[in-house]
Design goal:
With 543 residues, this protein is α+β, with helices and mostly antiparallel strands. It is built from 20 helices and 9 strands. The N terminus and C terminus are likely disordered.
């Protein structure tokens, strides 16, 4: 039995560390991507550049569920450390290959390994944010912050790449990336505290089975399935933007590639603005922000095919970038909250796989259409069709999003009064809050009978109880307190009788839900076992 405990806020240094990891990830991603495409184009023209895209994206899309399964099975700080160590190693290999003028295939294969290793980061960071967030609003705010740092990295990455390519060359770009990733790996080891995941078996077969379980979970669970489908649909559109931006720069504005780069920067800047707005207007809620993102991500395409001035084009692509940020923030938050905590990393890996595939298809379709149609007639059709599809998708998510934000905050707070439940991840607590039974009982009611098999865990939120063992009163407790864990954790009969002394209100959690939740982290399970062991003696019984 436990009395109420005070809640503890997640440590800000943990979140700041994760934001730093997200920033380095975005720099490492966009800088390597641009440099590899430049090298491929320089050595073999547009065909080699297209081959570079395929060699990097296809293996990443196929292997992302396997790579991200590690985040659901092993300590996540270790997964991040190993991921950045692999990035540092593969970046070093690319730098050496470029410096020694190795065959392009060697560079591309190493770049594929680098890109696959990148996928361990976003899914693992998303899982850690869920692990440390205490409220749904806090989780969304942290996702907003992650979107901001990633977008900032996407702005600074091209500038860094351009400067290094100009003064040093591609080999030095990857040499710098290798150093940055190595420093980040050490920093993660030193600064990020270990999480308290339950230990898992290792081995390729086990990891592959875990990956298959994640795919089956994402395919059969309505919430994650709908979110992944929605973000994949947005990826189909986002993948076309680079093609459209280049076409607008050359065909509509009569300028060159530098203008296309400016449009891409404007897209990123729009994302930063949207993140700043969401940070101040986080009370909008997921359904409203998702619908707004769907419209902002599509409708500006309608006038984009008719622009005659760069300033107008920058405003329109900035609005597109704002829509992309809103879709990402809301989609990530809904996916984190609708997925089981034990599946978060794998579900995010599947999301990334589908997004990469959709973006590749979108780019290919856009290239095909732009060569056959005028932008002034093509983009309005694309904009209207995309708006219709994405709004329908947002509406389909609305019920799930509303449900995810409608978890009883009072019940959530009452669950947190129990010390070992307070340490559980937010989605796990929300699952318990959604499944628990509220039971109103009169004074003199026997809630637990000594000697019976236990099937429920109780939290007393109003009223008072008397505890007795062998017909002798042992203690009286008033709300808030909890009881019933001994028989569940030790698989034994009830060690005491618990009777209400006042009209009381109880939260009741079924045995299976209780044990599943407690088993999510070593901290919660060990705390619960300590409590159960403390009250297992005949002189101080616990039901």
């Amino acid at each position: 039995m436990t009395r109420s405990s005070e809640t503890t806020e997640a440590a800000p240094p943990v979140v700041r560390g994760l934001l730093a990891v997200g920033f380095v990830f975005s720099i490492a991603e966009v800088t390597a991507w641009i440099t590899v495409l430049v090298v491929a184009f320089d050595r073999g023209g547009a065909g080699a550049a297209g081959l570079a895209v395929v060699v990097q994206l296809v293996p990443t899309a196929l292997l992302a569920p396997v790579v991200t399964a590690a985040g659901d099975r092993f300590p996540r700080h270790l997964v991040l450390t190993v991921g950045f160590a692999v990035l540092a190693t593969s970046a070093t290999g690319i730098a050496v290959s470029l410096a020694s003028s190795a065959d392009l295939w060697v560079v591309l294969l190493l770049a594929a390994a680098y890109t696959v290793a990148l996928e361990s980061t976003p899914a693992t960071v998303a899982s850690l944010l869920v692990r440390h967030a205490r409220t749904p609003l806090q989780l969304m705010q942290w996702n907003v912050a992650q979107s901001s740092v990633r977008t900032t990295g996407s702005l600074l990455g091209p500038l860094l790449t351009s400067a290094l390519l100009l003064v040093a060359g591609p080999a030095w770009v990857f040499a710098l990336l290798a150093a940055i990733c190595a420093i980040t790996a050490v920093g993660i080891t030193v600064r990020l505290p270990p999480d308290d995941r339950m230990t898992s078996a290792t081995g390729l077969r086990t990891v592959l089975r875990a990956s298959a379980d994640g795919i089956a979970y994402a395919a059969t669970t309505p919430g994650p399935r709908r979110v992944i489908a929605f973000i994949a649909a947005s990826g189909l559109l986002i993948g076309s933007f680079d093609v459209f931006f280049v076409a607008v720069a050359f065909d509509e504005l009569g300028r060159g590639g530098s203008t296309a780069a400016m449009l891409s920067a404007g897209f990123a800047a729009g994302g930063l603005v949207a993140s700043a707005v969401m940070r101040r207007r986080s009370t909008w809620g997921l359904p409203t922000a998702t619908a707004a993102g769907a419209l902002l991500l599509s409708l500006p395409l309608i006038p984009l095919g008719h622009v005659a001035h760069l300033a107008t084009a920058l405003v329109l692509v900035g609005i597109l970038g704002a829509g992309d940020a809103l879709v990402e923030i809301c989609g990530y938050t809904m996916l984190q909250r609708s997925s089981s905590e034990s599946m978060t990393s794998r579900v995010f890996g599947i999301l990334r796989s589908w997004f990469f595939l959709a973006a590749s298809v979108g780019a290919a379709i856009a290239g095909f259409l732009v060569t056959r149609h005028d932008l002034s007639s093509l983009l309005p059709v694309i904009g209207l069709a995309s708006a219709a599809v994405l709004v329908i998708g947002a509406i389909a998510l609305r019920r799930m999003a509303t449900r995810s934000v409608a978890v009883d905050a009072v019940a959530l707070g009452l669950l947190r009064t129990v010390g070992f439940l307070d340490r559980l991840p937010l989605p796990t607590l929300e699952e318990l809050a959604d499944r628990l039974e509220v039971r109103q009982v009169d004074a003199g009611c026997t809630v637990i009978t000594e000697g019976e098999h236990g099937a429920e865990f109780f939290i007393l939120v109003e009223g008072a109880i008397e505890i007795s063992a062998k017909n002798v009163a042992v203690d009286t407790l008033a709300a808030p307190c909890s009881f019933g864990e001994v028989a569940l954790l030790h698989e034994c009969v009830r060690t005491a009788t618990v009777t209400t002394t006042q009209p009381s209100r109880l939260l009741v959690i079924e045995r299976g839900d209780f044990l599943d939740a407690i088993g999510r982290t070593t901290t919660s399970r060990n705390m619960a076992l300590d409590v159960a062991d403390r009250f297992r003696t005949p002189t101080d019984p616990l039901g």
